[in-house]
Amino acid sequence: MSAPGELHAMTQIPPELRTERLVLRRWRPEDREPFAALNADPEVMRWYPKPLGREESDALVERIEEAIERDDFGLWAVEVPGVEPFVGYVGLAPVPFDAHFTPAIEIGWRLARHVWGRGYATEAAWRALELAFGALGLDEVVSFTAEGNLRSRRVMERLGMTRDPSDDFDHPLLDPGSPLSRHVLYRLSRVDHAHRPARGRG
């Protein structure tokens, strides 16, 4: 697999990605306020160490933007054209720690609670996977979450990702005593993705 820095030079990534209902795009200054509200929601952040304050949320946006600037891909802001200008993020990112499955590119999402259940995460993630296995030429994409996060695990499964329990791991950036420490790992290869039918809303 090519390193993210190499991908930047090798590929032409479109400035935004579109699906039937959504646009995955670069972040705008006006996204920061709704993103901060999302990150302060205890239910949205249930499977993260803690909700984020405004400064922490803004700092996260800056890190995301730096990654997109560097790699030409990342955690894109998600817009529902004509409905809502910002509902969260979906996208791709290098896994930021060492583990038995790294180096790897992760697909992830974080959406506002009021849009849950509409299939947005699956729809946007499917488009991101098309880019990952197309223009980016990746052989595999992973996703992981705390063991109890069944909502995200269902999205992974709808995307065709599979889990081998022997791949499960203790997240190295979390306290070993944390109830969130144990994580499940899902994988999807380019070959397996190619054998699944194209999806829209799922």
The class by helix and strand makeup works out as: alpha+beta
Rounded to the nearest angstrom, the radius of gyration is 16 Å
Summed over residues and divided by their number, the pLDDT gives a mean of 93
Gap between N and C termini, in Å?
A: 29 Å
* Total helical segments: 6
Largest sheet geometry: 5 strands, antiparallel
Number of strands: 9
Morphology: globular
Measured as a percent range, the helix fraction is 25-40%
Q: Give the strand content.
A: 15-25%
Ranges with pLDDT <50 over ≥5 residues?
Answer: 1-9
User: What letter string, H or E per element, gives the SSE order?
Assistant: HEEHHEEEHEHEEEH
Question: What strand order characterises the main sheet?
Answer: 1-2-3-4-5
Strand and helix map with partners:
Blueprint: H1 4-10, E1 17-18, E2 23-25, H2 32-39, H3 54-71, E3 75-80, E4 84-94, E5 105-111, H4 120-133, E6 140-146, H5 150-158, E7 162-163, E8 169-170, E9 182-189, H6 190-194
Antiparallel strand pairs: 1-2, 2-3, 3-4, 4-5, 6-9, 7-9, 8-9
Keyphrases for this structure?
202 residues, alpha+beta, five-stranded antiparallel β-sheet, 9 strands, disordered N terminus
